[in-house]
Automatic annotation (TrEMBL):
<dbReference type="InterPro" id="IPR004155">
    <property type="entry name" value="PBS_lyase_HEAT"/>
</dbReference>
<feature type="compositionally biased region" description="Basic and acidic residues">
    <location>
        <begin position="1109"/>
        <end position="1122"/>
    </location>
</feature>
<protein>
    <recommendedName>
        <fullName>ARM repeat-containing protein</fullName>
    </recommendedName>
</protein>
<dbReference type="InterPro" id="IPR011989">
    <property type="entry name" value="ARM-like"/>
</dbReference>
<dbReference type="InterPro" id="IPR016024">
    <property type="entry name" value="ARM-type_fold"/>
</dbReference>
<feature type="region of interest" description="Disordered">
    <location>
        <begin position="1092"/>
        <end position="1122"/>
    </location>
</feature>
<dbReference type="Pfam" id="PF13646">
    <property type="entry name" value="HEAT_2"/>
</dbReference>
<feature type="compositionally biased region" description="Acidic residues">
    <location>
        <begin position="1097"/>
        <end position="1108"/>
    </location>
</feature>
Amino acid sequence: MDHEDLSALLPQYESLTHSERVRQMVQLGRKSKTSPATTALISTLSRGPPYTQLLCLQTCHGSGDLAVAKHLLSAPSHVLRKQAIHLIVSLGTDDELLEALKVVPASLQRGTVGRISNLGARRGREAVIERFLRWLEGRGGDGKVWRCLLPFGSRALLEKHLPDLVDDFSLLDWSHLAKCHPALAQQTLHRLIEDSEEGDVLLQRILRHVFTQWISHDATTGFALDLVRKSMPKIPLAVFPIGWPEPLLLKRRPRQAINIILNAADDLSTDIFTFQTERLWRKLSLEQFLALAKRYPSLLEGPLFPDLTTEQKLPAYELIRVAWRDENGVLEWDIAEHLPTKERIAEARRHLNLKWLDTNPNRRIRYISLLPWDEAIELQKPYLRSSDADIRSEALSRQIKAAKFDSERIEDALDLIIRHKNEPATIQREFFRALKGIPAARFKEGHLGLLTQVVRNALDSAAATIALYLLVEFLAGVLSVHPRWASRQMALVVKERGAVPGRVRLSGVVPIKEVMSVVQEEMSPALENLLRKQDAAALTTLARAFEEYMEYWPELLSTCTKTLEIPEMERSHEMMMEAIYKFQHPASFWTDIIPILTKENKDIAGSRHIVRKIHHRYQNLLAPYLHPIDAPPSYTRKRDALNELRGGFWRWTPGQQEALAQIILKDIADEDVTSDKKVSYIRQLGRLPSVDINHLITLAKDGRPVVQETALKALGRLDSSEGIPTLIDALGDDRGRIAIYALRSALRDLPKSKAFEILKAVPSTKVTVAKETVRLIGDLEAEEAFQWLLEAEKTNLHASVRKALLRALWNYLDRDETWAIFTHAAGGPEPEVAKGVISIPVDGMSFSTRQKHLSLLLTLLSHPAPEVRLETLQRLNSMPLSDPEAMLSPRLFELIRSEYQDEVSCTVRALFSTYARTQTPLIAHLYEELTSDRELLIRVHDVPYISQISPRDEARHLWPVTRAILGVLERDRLSVKRRVKLMFEGLPWDELKGYLVGVVPDLTADALVLACGEIEGEGWSAGWKREGDDFEGTEGLLRCSPDERARRLALSLLVAGVGANGEWTREKRERLQGYRSDESVLVAEAAWEVEVRGVDDGEGEDGEEEGDGGDKETEKGDGGFE
């Protein structure tokens, strides 16, 4: 190609794809090494519009000359600057890269340093980062950029500066440090943990953040695990996203996670295992499984039993088998079915002796099927011959499925199906559902003859579609074991009845490639039959079924493609495209098929898959969309598909972009087009980099509000700063409220000095414009911006503008002038202004700055407006602070006596959030005062405090306070019930039991009822009851007491112990009988009301339970025990 003539060069590129244009430019770059004329051409292109400049950048790959890239570092376009510095990262020397970093905006500096860091040692660019950081530090570079990029520097540099900066680190800083220097981050976090107080909320946020980052990457998983281990026991385990709703650790490293959980002193809520257990159990060793099951026995719920490994099932059954039984002694069939052989048969025989099954034949049939085949078939005979179709169906399906217990009986099961071949379709479908329940590997060569007869019978019968579907699903399951037979039978079903399987999953001893080779050979003829019938539904389903394996079956792909060329199958084209699109096709496939689909008036041309493929890879095929000759509705679909494109228009030529712009402008002018579509059209217009900006400028003056506002926002999001003059003009009229917000995006890449000059000239006559201008100036984080804010603060500002100014000063928390302004605002008479300094973030604050912040909060707590005080208290609750000198406590003690109950409640929460970890005596002293004011005690304690405590480990920092309060309340004779409630609401059993024994002499009737209800109730949800708690010691102590109240509590502990252990053993039943014989009516009457369930009398050697095995007692006052 002759590249000497610029006028001929670009028109030639119109017919090429973007990738082809790039290749041509690379060749142009190579030619420039020996051709001065070509070099001159490249220079001309680099001074052209953005599109030619972007193409010109690609010549650097061919020439190795970075002059163009260096020139475009100062281009108005953000995309061009970004591409230019990326080229220099790839091709430039260290010196060239360093100079490039010095001239690009701060956002590109941060992004490029991160990119260099990601390249790692293999590119040897670490020295550039080090030199750039030294330049930032020593030559007046942006100090905030230096601080942000410091974690990307060398370890030596970090060790020098980190001690002075780590207390001010934000979460983003920690992310960078954890990524670039995980070992150093680990060492630093270990030191912070050792130096921290228990319950340090800010440290917990950091640990959770870093852990989440580390556990998400294989290379740093070890650091994440070590961080959790090092954090215990000072940091509650629940702080980390171990399980549900963020199951990061359990999902990534299940065995290590379980070891951590088992070794932790914390007892976690079993909710963390939600949605994980079915995948978790099988990954555990037997030792881990047993340890976890013993600590958290409620995890072994019936529905999860089938997911256990064979090795795990017997120990799990022995551990909790009685607890799984219901009040009738019934063990769910789904559990019994998966037991080892001996236990399965024993459970089946035990169940057949239960009278409860006598009135429920369907359930009885299920348990019969668990017996050995001959014994079961004899008992099933009445049901197999039943005139009730439902009973007969249940018996047939259960017995057929039972062949999985004994492979030698599969032939008998198949014979049973053949003998019942004339059953109605509703029963036949259960045959195939049962066959699917037998593992495919159990079917041997000797069974294939009978299976062939089963298939033939189904095809010859009037079986319903669902039955054939289940049949073909069964055949798909057998493909991996007997590929030849299964594929042949499947082809037969497809040919004769058109039934195809759903998703096919190949797994077995036969390699996938071999299986698919047979499938291709046997089933390809059926494809031609489906195509001839134009059975699009079957073809689509077949394509989806073999979606993962289509590379081994090219005939299927070819057949699906042919359907796109058949007009009569147009209605199914979209479904077929969904299946075809996912497959990796050669480039020639799309270049051949797209013109066929788009040249005519076909709906498929509007498929989002086709349009995205053209947009990303085949831009030379855009003509049917940009220059349509079709009539609606086809073009409407094409137009809607184009509108879904959200970016990447740099791949389009200027001519293509202008053609789309004309379509957009025409649609915007059309009164029949809805406002929603016009909004999306204008947004897309703003994403076209080569289109004249005057189109948007005109729309920004449009009389239609929705068009005007959207155009202004689009001007703010342009790739360059071209929209700024229009936005500034709009600030002076009614469009100002939209234009000022759009201006934020437009200014993002301008130098700070230039942005400041623009902003300080903005008219401040409108409140919305003025306050947003103040915020934007504050975000510049420059000295001149700070001085401007100080001067503005001295003027008479609207309250909303002053509040915005306070928010702008958040970026200057290291300046004394800022805190003087904050303090003045906090003590001022205007509540809305005072609220502007309440939510100042503490993330990254130094110690001295935090002290100023505490003083500010104290001022806010003394504000005369209750809404200011209330919002300040809520801030203390949501983001607890460290106040080692108790600066806030005197004012908080005063607010406890507020006339507003909301303020009292918030004050109590703030007190405990701030001081519970470190100032326990302070809280105890408060309660000493409260006991002399009964009404105030109720207002402070009964709801506010009780609502935030918990016996769970995540709230253990409140346990010392709870113990202190109990000590105070013990001396208050009118707080017995309050003591009982507090001990159960705030302490775990190990700490609670001592207080329970101690409270007995003081128990009133109401307090005793409350205590018994707490013990016997669902304490697991409250947290004081924990898996494995032993109540027997405390029960024994109370049972021997002469005080009837103690013995009544002992009875409740017996009932609670049964709930925890899951069974009424003989020994526990004997203890219950003792309570029933108690001389106290209080004890005996309650004992006779205890309902005994899940009785375990022990089992004999033959696996059958002692006694008649039938009537397990559910007692309510009918005498003693057998």
